[in-house]
Amino acid sequence: MGCDGLGGERPNDKSWGRDQRGRLSIPRYLSEEEIAKSDEYSEGDPYSVEDRLDSPFHRRRFNLTLELLRDVAPFKHLLDVGCGEGHITAEIKKRFPEAEIHALDYSISAIRKAHRKYPGIHFAVGDAVKSRYPAGPFDVIVCNNLWEHVTNPVDLLQRMKDVLKPNGAVIISTPSRYRTDNLVRVFLGKEVKFMSKLHVTEYTVGQVKEQLTFGGFEVQKIISRPINTGSMKFRTAHKMLELFCSTIKSHHQLESTIFYLARLK
Questions:
Q1: How many Å is the maximal CA-CA distance in the chain?
Q2: Tally of CB atoms within 10 A around 150
Q3: How far is the first Cα of the chain from the last one, in angstroms, to the nearest whole number?
Q4: What is the 3-state secondary structure of 237-253?
Q5: Do residues 127 and 29 make contact, with C-beta atoms less than 8 angstroms apart?
Q6: Are 123 and 114 in contact (CB under 8 A)?
Q7: 8 Å CB contact between 9 and 28
């Protein structure tokens, strides 16, 4: 069913994937040239998420996303933007079975795998900034670790705003630019280091709040719950920096990934 299930523009037959029986299946809203250039999952998951699903980092991602979703429940229609291979999307569907779940990613290989593995979710291939969903069908949009991959997150916010219902919510997670290891690097006179070479940039908490406000959203909650991992030296540095940031009332958050809940104003 895909996007047209919400009353959106139905793609022509050439823009749809086909299963082994030749039946139309996955909606594709990209040209063949765009698909060829953007299929970062064509040789497997570049982020190795599936191999590390039980790691503290990914369990924290899952748990905090679900925690924020409970804050906005009940909801009928949810969109997961930048869903990758659909692992978090599937967890959302499991915890909120009555909701209609849609998910979008730029990689056709990722969506094909998600479509095969997780039935009951409407997966589609497309550009998050230019998605062809109609105006106003969604109660909530989840955007896990996509912010750091787009060149203009304000444009992405505008598209989210277009497809959300009045008072709709967004849940965003993205790396904190000045997490513990980067603050240590700054104090030592070194450049900050990104979590992945695939990131366009990484933002401070203050910058993400400014983007959300400029985009017409009101930030309701920010979560930066720690993961108790790392060496003793790292944990000691973390505690010292935490005390320093608290003393000077800094908005910087020291955790690797920060979660935001915001609603349309």
A1: 64
A2: 17
A3: 31
A4: HHHHHHHHHHHCCCCCC
A5: yes
A6: yes
A7: no
Give the start-end residues of each E strand in the chain.
Answer: 16-18, 24-27, 77-81, 100-105, 122-125, 138-144, 164-175, 217-223, 257-264
- Bond prior to 175 in cis (omega within 30° of 0): no
3-state SS, residue 118: coil
Cis? peptide before 27, omega within 30° of 0: no
CB neighbours of residue 1 within 10 Å: 11
Taking only the tens of pLDDT, the chain with its 265 residues reads 334 446 444 333 333 344 444 444 688 889 889 988 889 999 999 988 998 888 888 898 999 999 999 999 999 999 999 999 999 999 999 999 999 999 999 999 999 999 999 999 999 999 999 988 999 999 999 999 999 999 899 999 999 999 999 999 999 999 999 888 888 888 899 999 999 999 999 999 999 999 999 999 999 999 987 666 566 766 676 677 667 666 766 677 778 899 999 999 9
Global pTM value:
0.85
User: What is the distance between the alpha carbons of residues 239 and 245, in angstroms, rounded to a whole number?
Assistant: 10
The C-alpha atoms of residue 60 and residue 66 are separated, in whole angstroms, by: 10
Helix, strand, or coil (residue 102)? strand
227/56 Cα distance (integer angstroms): 7
Handedness of CA 146, 150, 154, 159 (dihedral sign): negative
Q: How many other CB atoms are found less than 10 A from the CB of residue 10?
A: 15
How far is residue 122 CA from its own chain's centroid?
17
- Kindly state the tokens that stand for 197: 């070479």
